[in-house]
Amino acid sequence: MTSVPVPGRPVSGHAAAGRSGHGARRFNRTSRRAVLNLLGLLVALFSLFPVLWMISTAFKPASEIYSLTPQPVPLHPTLANFQAVFSGSVIGLPYWNFLRNSLFITLVAVALSSLIGLLAAIALGRFKFRFRTTYLVVLLIVQLLPQQALVVSLFIDFRRVDLLDSLVGLIVVYTAFALPVTIWMLRNFAATVPKELEEAAAIDGAGAWTRFWHILLPLISPGLVSTSVFAFIFAYNEFVFALTFLGTDTAKFTLPLYVQYFYGQNSTNWGAIMASSTLFTIPVLAFFLVTQRRLASGLLAGAVKG
Amino acid sequence: MVTSSHSRPGTPSPAGSTPPGREADGSRKTSDRSAPSAPSRSFRQRAAISIRKRGLAPYLLLLPATAVIGLLIIWPAVQIGLFSFQNYGLMQISGVEPAQWVGFSNYSQILHDPEFWSSLKISLYFAVVVVPATMIAGTLVGLLLERLGPRMRTFVSVSAILAWATPAVSASVIFAWLVDPDGGVVDWALTKVPSWLGGGASWSGFSWTNAPLPAYTVLTVMLVWTGFPFVAITVLAGLRTVPSELHDAARVDGAGPWRDFWKVTFPLLRPVFLVLALLSTIWDFGMFTQAYIITGQLGNRDEYNLGLYEYSQAFTQPPHYGLASAAAFVLTIILLIVTVGYVRAAIKQGAFA
Fold first, then answer.
1. B288 contacts on A by Cβ (under 8 Å)
2. Which residues of A touch B61 (CB under 8 A)?
3. Which of A81, A151, A297, B234 falls between 20 and 30 A from B253, CA-CA?
């Protein structure tokens, strides 16, 4: 936060050329800018405060966590909370166990939904066929169905086919629920590849497979990155299905379930809860910072533009 | 969809028979050329020709996605409707007794359950408060972002996006800690606020999660915190499409910022606002994860919203899958009505162009 441009920095150009007669207006403009920057800082503080407080608590010893006057920054930083999380002294299993579950489920589901989504997006973006618009509308509706409603039905089906308490069951569900948005976003990318490119290649004798591999895929791949990020974040964060399908088998818990279980079981050990939550959250935020520009535009394309 | 086109290969469907990257006249040429299929062609070649000729390619490409979505999203939604008319419970799921059709008995049972109505009321009130609050906060921040310098704008919008990107489970646990009666920073801060502003020593050790009103106050702040960045970034993107001449003209005509917003900006961004409001309604009315964690993991029945009510019917002992399905069906129908509005707004915006 310290590297932020300070309110009241000179308005370049104008300030240098300004004569004394423009002094009042210049002051007006600087003070306006100062007020705006102050408001901006307040918004940033409101946005960041909960996350910063989580990180700060994770490094505090118990005496500071339950202190009568909370400090914004730990006075005596400690790694004890993280050690408790890594050693698994609370739930009986170390953090790595849950990280492994989460990464396994998430990566497989992302790969599957990207592959299946790519095929569907090519159909919807490159072909004209009778039910195309209907299909897109159905996808849009399906994407907004409440998951806590569908979970009842899926629970009964999965019990029948023995997919409860199974990471495979979650992979299947995450693949399916990541698909509608994946297809929507990829379809927008696929539709923007100019037809002339493919036509030129076809005239040069390239078959359907060559055209896909050398023209379509390279041009859609930025879209694949966005949709993979989206699917990754969806599957890594997902809660309702994990809660319902993994039930009581703590060894199979994913990270969100673990963090939440930690809180439910041990609602007084805030240091350990915040440490586990920090370990769970920071990768998502880092991932977001790296990809945010691409993701924001992709989400706008998927959610708002349609 | 796929089968209907399989069974009627001769049907003239100009759109369906266009091979990739060809215009309609080109496609006729292709099919003419491949019509006398020589017996020497391999199966793969013949299959490829038949796919191209009949325009099956898009349907084949859609097959995996359709199967997965159909089996795991659409079928469960249909099954919810079926279960809601059956007495599906513990005996039925364990296979001891077969499920029986019971007509509307599940619906009449939940409609006579005061907990259903209180949960519906909570969901409605919550959406009515949170959606406008998110929209107003997001719009104000979007307008602010437009007026900031580039570096400050990046800093503020990235901070906001981090709030939006925080996983729901993390946000819930963090807010539970912020409002914890023992050591939470909110109670401490409220004791420092002068009493004429509503603060004071009585806030010390105040429990936010034991009654519906305080719990949903926390959830309101949390969902505005999560939701405003998406609105702000979208509104900012929309503001940049408004030609500056319009603002100049309004200013020349003596309009202040308030009138400028309502007479110039808002009418132009109306479709964006509509889509955002509908999406927020769907998300907030259907909120589950945050409510589940903040209200104590199904522990407080008087704090259920519709989602928690429905979920608890199925997943607290003894399970009533039939009742849960009826409640889930009601929840789904309400959200579908909003979704239809959303889809219409998306179509108006040219989503299917």
1. 146-148, 239-240
2. 119-120, 122-123, 127
3. B234
Chain A CA closest to residue B329 = A149
Fold classification of B111-348 (topology level): MetI-like fold (1.10.3720)
pLDDT tens, residue by residue, A43-72: 999 999 999 999 999 998 888 888 778 888
CB contact (8 A) between residue B169 and residue A273? no
Is A43 in Cβ contact with B144 (below 8 Å)?
A: yes
Which class for A122: exposed (0-12), middle (13-18), buried (19 or more C-beta within 10 A)? buried
Set of chain A residues whose Cβ sits within 8 Å of the Cβ of B166: 50-51, 281, 284-285
- The b/e string for A104-115 (b: 16+ C-beta within 10 A; e otherwise) is ebbebbbebbbe
HEC per residue, chain B: CHHHHHHCCCCCCCCCCCCCCCCHHHHHHHHHHHCCCCCCCCHHHHHHHHHHHHCCHHHHHHHHHHHHHHHHHHHHHHHHHHHCCECCEHHHHCCCCCCCECCCHHHHHHHCCHHHHHHHHHHHHHHHHHHHHHHHHHHHHHHHHHHCCHHHHHHHHHHHHHHHHCCHHHHHHHHHHHCCCCCCHHHHHHHHCCHHHCCCHHHCCCCCCCCHHHHHHHHHHHHHHHHHHHHHHHHHHHHCCCCHHHHHHHHHCCCCHHHHHHHHHHHHHHHHHHHHHHHHHHHHHCCCHHHHHHCCCCCCHHHCCHHHHHHHHHHCCCCEHHHHHHHHHHHHHHHHHHHHHHHHHHHHCCCCC
d(CA B107, CA B105): 5
Per CB-CB distance under 8 Å, the chain A contacts of B284 are: none
Asked if A152's CB is within 8 angstroms of B314's CB, the reply is: yes
ipTM reported for the complex, 2 dp = 0.82
SS3 A119: helix
Query: Rounded CA gap, A99 and A79, in Å?
Result: 19
Structure tokens at B302: 């008087």
Q: How far out from the chain centre does Cα B281 lie?
A: 8
Q: What is the mean pLDDT of residues A169-184?
A: 92
SS3 A72: coil
Out of B167, B183, B237, whose CB is closest to A256?
B167
Point out the residue among B173, B340, B350 whose CB comes nearest to the CB of A273. B173
One-letter amino acid of B282: I
B47 contact residues in A (CB cutoff 8 A): none
Nearest to B166 among A142, A176, A281 (CB): A281
**Superfamily of domain A86-304 in the CATH hierarchy:** MetI-like (1.10.3720.10)
Chain A, residues 15-44, CB within 8 A of chain B, namely 33, 36-37, 39-41, 43-44
Q: How confident is the model at residue B211 (pLDDT cuts 50, 70, 90)?
A: confident
Q: Nearest by CB to A157, from B66, B68, B76: name it.
A: B76
User: What percentage of chain A has pLDDT greater than the value 90?
Assistant: 28
State pLDDT tens for residues B167-198. Answer: 999 999 999 999 988 888 888 888 888 877 77
If you count residue pairs, one on A and one on B, with CB atoms under 8 Å apart, how many are there? Answer: 319
